[in-house]
């Protein structure tokens, strides 16, 4: 892999930010890397991975009792090499990560109805106050 994967920030214990040029401006590759890392049996102590495709970095939180910083970096490098080489399988979920999370009733839920109802009531009150004034 010609572009180097390196640690950008590691001053907070059990939390590192890693530069991964492979994911810069590439949402699908970032999602594949994230899911592959979190599901990797050799990375059981990694419990959070958050890509930033704008900067091309990855925020990773891990259990220091299970992994060292070097081991986390090595896992990310290994998975990124696999993605670059085409050995990691892309699924429909990777191509559209929201696909599996979205429920049919997601657009019409209780919070939306309460919000609309509140705005309608506020509008009636405002109209009544304007008429009085």
What would CATH call the class of the largest domain?
A: Alpha Beta
How many structural domains are formed by the residues? 2
Structural class determined from secondary elements: alpha+beta
Count of beta strands = 4
Uncertain segments are none
Give the neighbour order of strands across the main sheet: 1-2-4-3
Query: What would you say the CATH architecture of the largest domain is?
Result: 2-Layer Sandwich
Model description:
The chain contains four helices and four strands, in the order ββαββααα. By secondary structure, the protein is an alpha+beta fold. The protein folds into two domains: 6-95, Alpha-Beta Plaits; 103-133. A four-stranded antiparallel beta sheet has the order 1-2-4-3, with helices on one face. The longest helix is centred in the last third of the chain and has 23 residues, at 110-132. It is elongated and about 70 Å long. The model has no long low-confidence stretch (mean pLDDT 84).
Give a concise summary.
By secondary structure, the protein is an alpha+beta fold. Helix content is 43%, strand content 17%.
Supply database-style keywords.
single chain, alpha+beta, Alpha-Beta Plaits, 2 domains, 4 helices, 43% helix, membrane, transmembrane helix, transmembrane
């Amino acid at each position: 892999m010609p572009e180097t994967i390196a640690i950008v920030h590691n001053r907070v214990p059990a939390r590192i930010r890693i530069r991964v040029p492979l994911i810069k401006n590439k949402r699908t590759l970032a999602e594949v890397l994230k899911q592959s890392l979190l599901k990797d049996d050799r990375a059981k102590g990694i419990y959070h991975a958050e890509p930033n495709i704008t900067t091309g970095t990855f925020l990773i939180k891990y259990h220091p009792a299970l992994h060292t910083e070097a081991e986390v970096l090595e896992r990310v490098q290994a998975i990124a090499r696999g993605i670059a080489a085409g050995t990691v399988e892309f699924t429909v979920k990777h191509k559209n990560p929201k696909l599996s999370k979205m429920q049919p009733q997601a657009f019409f839920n209780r919070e939306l109805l309460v919000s609309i109802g509140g705005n309608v009531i506020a509008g009636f009150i405002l109209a009544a106050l304007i008429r009085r004034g």
